[in-house]
Amino acid sequence: MLTLYFSPGACSMAAHALLEEIGKPYEAKPVALRKGQQRTPDYLKINPVGKVPVLTVDGKPLTENVAILSYLGRKFPEAKLWPGGGLEAEAEMFSLLAWLASGVHICFGRMFGPQRTCDMPGAEESVVRIARGETERNFALIDAKLAGKDWAFGSYSVADPYLFVFHHWAATRFNLDVSPYPNYRAHYQRVLARPAVKRMLEKEQAVQKQLEAA
Questions:
Q1: Can you give the pLDDT at residue 69?
Q2: What pLDDT does 207 receive?
Q3: 92-146, pLDDT tens digit by residue?
Q4: CATH number at residue 168
Q5: Cα-based distances in Å from 54 to 19, 37, 85, 198, 206
Q6: Cα distance between residue 83 and residue 27, in whole Å
Q7: Are 103 and 189 contained in the same domain?
Q8: Are residues 76 and 107 in the same domain?
Q9: 2-6 and 26-30 as β-strands: parallel, antiparallel, unpaired?
């Protein structure tokens, strides 16, 4: 049994979209980050780091996007979300996922919570400004990688919904100018058009409304 612990609109969207794409039964359990549910004793038993996503496989928790996305891609080969071509192709996939997690994602983390990076009075604006500049450079690299491609690795794979997350944040949460990155923008629109991604977004929007009303 697969269970995804997620928060609407968080980086867990990538795993949530993949589960919808794979089409196997799974349970989705929302975690209200803004209400601090990720820091409750019960949740910390599942993930001591206090973050989403967590994917439990028959009750055993798996954390971190790189591990979860890789697991889903390799566990369900019939979905064709993991690259063929042997060790070299897999290494290229791990390389991209690792950079997205440690390079691209971390810059957004600084924008979401600049006070966690530097607690000096008045430093928040500088933290955000530097993180936005790094994000612009990262987006330029992504745009170059996607030049002439529909997807990051030939066909739709576990990397594409993770790429989707960052463009989604840029456009919907931080009002970043994405016009200099036409390849990335086109990729975002292609991912957004996938039925599995539409279902994921609809489900997460419904959960968000429930959390706000509670």
A1: 98
A2: 97
A3: 999 999 999 999 999 999 999 998 888 888 899 999 999 999 999 999 999 999 9
A4: 1.20.1050.10
A5: 13, 13, 29, 21, 20
A6: 26
A7: yes
A8: no
A9: parallel
Same-domain status, 105 and 190: yes
Determine the structural domain holding residue 208 and report its residue range: 2-80+196-213
Where do runs of H (alpha helix) occur along the chain? 13-22, 41-46, 65-75, 87-99, 105-112, 124-145, 159-172, 182-192, 195-213
C-alpha span between 112 and 53 (Å, rounded) = 17
- CA nearest to 163, candidates 132, 44, 149: 149
Expressed in angstroms, the distance from the first to the final Cα of the chain is 28
pLDDT tens-digit readout, 133-157:
999 999 999 999 999 999 999 999 9
pLDDT at 213: 85
What is the CATH classification number for the domain harbouring 43? 3.40.30.10
